[in-house]
Amino acid sequence: MDAGHGGEDGGAVSVSGVAESGLNLSIALKIDALAGLYGVPVVLTRTEDVSLADDSADTLQERKRSDIYNRVALANETPNACLLSIHQNHYTSSSVSGAQVFYRNTEEGKSWAMLTQAALRAAIDPENDRVAAQIPDSVYLLNHVTCPAILVECGFLSNPGEDQLLQSDGYQSSLAATIFSAYLQYFIGEVSI
Length: 193
Description:
Layout: E1 2-3, H1 20-37, H2 60-77, E2 83-89, E3 100-103, H3 107-123, E4 133-134, H4 140-144, E5 149-156, H5 160-167, H6 169-187
Helix pairs in contact: 1-6, 3-6
C-alpha cells in the first residue's frame, strides 16, 4: 500500500495549511491495521514521513523521480501484489469536493476502482456523483506497475469543510474501513467489516 508523497514532498497543502503526505500516511496506517485484523499481508511503501528517494538524488526533482521509481520497483517486486495508493485532491475552486478513485488501464483495476468508488459513495458521501476514472498517462506510478492498481483521492484539501473532515480521526477511520472493505469484497469475496 502506498501512502502518497512523504519527506520533502508534502504533496498538496490544505486550506488550513496541512500537508497531504501526513493525511495519506494516517489513512494508510489505518487500512494496514484493519488488514492485520483480517490476516491480509500488507507491504507499506512508508510508515513515517519520509521520501523513498535514493541517497544519490540531489535536487528535489531528482529526489521526486527516484522516490516514484522506488515505489514502482517495490510494487513490481512484491509477489501477488495489488497497489492501493492513498492521496488527497486539490482544485482551484473551494466548492469542489468528494472522493474519486482512479485505475490503471486494466479490467481488474477498473472493476476494483468502480467497486471502491461505489463503496465510498454509499458509506461516506451519498451526494458524490464522481465516477471511477482511468488515470492519465502522466501519472507514472499507476502506469508503470505490473499489478492491479488504484489510486484513491480521498477528498479535496481545497474545500474547507472536507479539509476539516480529512483531518478528523473518525473520518479517516471511516475512509479506511470503506476502502479496505471494497478491497476485501473484490479480492476475497463477500466480506464486510
